[in-house]
Amino acid sequence: MGHRDLGQPRLVVVSNRIADPRKTAAGGLAVALADVLNSTGGLWFGWSGKIDDEAPQGEGKVHVTQAGSVKLATVDLCRADHDSYYLGYANGVLWPVFHYRLDLADFDAGYIAGYRRVNQLFAKKLMPLLRPDDIIWVHDYHLIPLAAELRALGCTQRIGFFLHIPLPPPLILAAIPGHDWLIRALFAYDLVGFQSQADLSHFAGYVTAEAHAQQVEEHRWRAFGRTLEANAFPIGLDVEEFTTLTHAPEGRDMYERMRSEYSRRKLLVGVDRLDYSKGLPQRMRAFRHLLDKYPEARNSATLVQIASPSREDVEAYNDILKEMESLCGSINGNFGELDWMPVRYLHRTVARARLPGLYRASRVGLVTPLRDGMNLVAKEFVVAQNPEDPGVLVLSRFAGAAEQMREALLVNPYDTEGTAAAIQLALSMPLEERRERHEHLMKTIRRQDVHWWCQSFLAALEKAQAEVKGTPWLRL
Ligand SMILES: O=P(O)(O)OC[C@H]1O[C@H](O[C@H]2O[C@H](CO)[C@@H](O)[C@H](O)[C@H]2O)[C@H](O)[C@@H](O)[C@@H]1O
Ligand SMILES: O=c1ccn([C@@H]2O[C@H](COP(=O)(O)OP(=O)(O)O)[C@@H](O)[C@H]2O)c(=O)[nH]1
């Protein structure tokens, strides 16, 4: 995909997390959007990552810089806004509920006001930067009401929304106090995209049952006086970029080092943010079961688990760190030998440039979330493999990626024995079967890459009927 031509609408991307698109970032959303904007150019607007203790509530300084063909505009947040919007509502309410974890949600009534204030702030700061023919693409659960706030300020441009995380079944969604407000806000967009068909069907179920929406065409629903298009657009990788990274000096160096360190053993690898949705304790228990039940794995399989620190100020994340340390410690204590430690656990972020070498040196990739919007690590692991001697992906059926990646070994991460058996199968899989599975997975990953994702979403948005002028505006 080349830069958007003169005369074509400019792409404006809005997301909470932004990154310099010329550098690598951790977190699937920032990685994917940097890849997209690097090839299209445009404006990327979001939170600066800074907290300004001087700023009053609902206010923040805007910083504008140029990064190659991308203009970056970022806003600071004051502590109270950051805490109620990002830690509170986005990551204390929406994240757990959208990942089916009502038990972890903190329905503090104060959070929603901060969430709304920051969405209003984003709308206010973005408006003056917009051109009449811009096409605006808003990302993720932090910014669901942004289009409605922009519309309230007179924005008539096309606006699309993509949800990177799962959308739960209607009755789980309906547990959020004010859920109707959130879904009503979605109808201010012209197009809403989801990661999977499962998410799309939950959306259809919710709007039909709770908002009495009418389905007017295959992918169009009418409610609150507006018609909205919704569809599934599974996010992909920049396969070329990741392949280049694999063969770059840093990738090769990492590969060589891992191979020589583990020349006598088979490596298993896990790379995740330390998040309860990623199923890390369940993975450790499955690995422990493997060592217990399949003695041939002892002294011959080593699991390298990277757990990148994440959202440490959100209460629901407190326990997982201790649980992981205790599980890894007890596995090493019980099964380790003087010359072999079963688990190498790193509680830190590893630079993305080093990951392909680690993936390529591993016989098994473990991607076993309890729920995940997509999971780009699953795709990265496959792309980094040597096609002549590829490793095997063990993938949770509850990751969005499982809808596309049927040739992985699909597991139920809650089933310790079943997951251990799949790991054992992966460790002993014959070369021919590994090659066949890898070839099929690569075909899908190449066909539905990040450029396909971006082009198909934007093509649908450009076609979506502009119903903005003269629409009686739904006030939130
Ligand atoms: O920004 P953070 O709070 O540090 O969190 C990092 C990102 O996590 C989530 O990523 C999701 O998007 C990925 C790409 O589509 C997808 O593969 C993954 O399954 C999702 O969990 C979150 O949705 C992003 O907003 C965060 O930036
Ligand atoms: O220590 C780490 C951990 C993760 N990542 C990257 O962060 C992204 C994680 O995206 P994913 O979709 O798997 O999950 P998310 O963290 O966005 O929920 C992937 O590109 C990883 O390569 C990284 O660079 N270093």
Description:
- The structure is a single chain.
- By secondary structure, the chain is of the alpha/beta class.
- It has 2 domains: 11-236 and 451-463, Rossmann fold; 239-447, Glycogen Phosphorylase B (Rossmann fold).
- The chain has 16 helices and 16 strands.
- The protein has helices at residues 28-40, 79-98, 111-126, 146-152, 170-173, 179-186, 197-210, 239-247, 249-261, 280-293, 318-335, 355-360, 376-384, 416-427, 431-447, 450-463; strands at 11-15, 42-51, 62-67, 70-77, 135-139, 158-162, 191-194, 214-217, 220-223, 226-232, 266-273, 301-308, 343-346, 364-367, 392-396, 409-411.
- The strands form 2 sheets. A 10-stranded mixed sheet has the order 3-4-2-1-5-6-7-10-9-8, sandwiched between helices. A 6-stranded parallel sheet has the order 13-12-11-14-15-16, sandwiched between helices.
- Helix 10 packs across helix 14.
- The longest helix is centred in the N-terminal third of the chain and has 20 residues, at 79-98.
- The protein is globular and about 65 Å long.
- The mean pLDDT is 94.
- The structure holds ligand L263DTV3 and uridine-5'-diphosphate.
- The ligand O=P(O)(O)OC[C@H]1O[C@H](O[C@H]2O[C@H](CO)[C@@H](O)[C@H](O)[C@H]2O)[C@H](O)[C@@H](O)[C@@H]1O binds next to helix 1.
- Pathway: Glycan biosynthesis; trehalose biosynthesis.
- It catalyses: D-glucose 6-phosphate + UDP-alpha-D-glucose = alpha,alpha-trehalose 6-phosphate + UDP + H(+).
- Its EC number is 2.4.1.15.
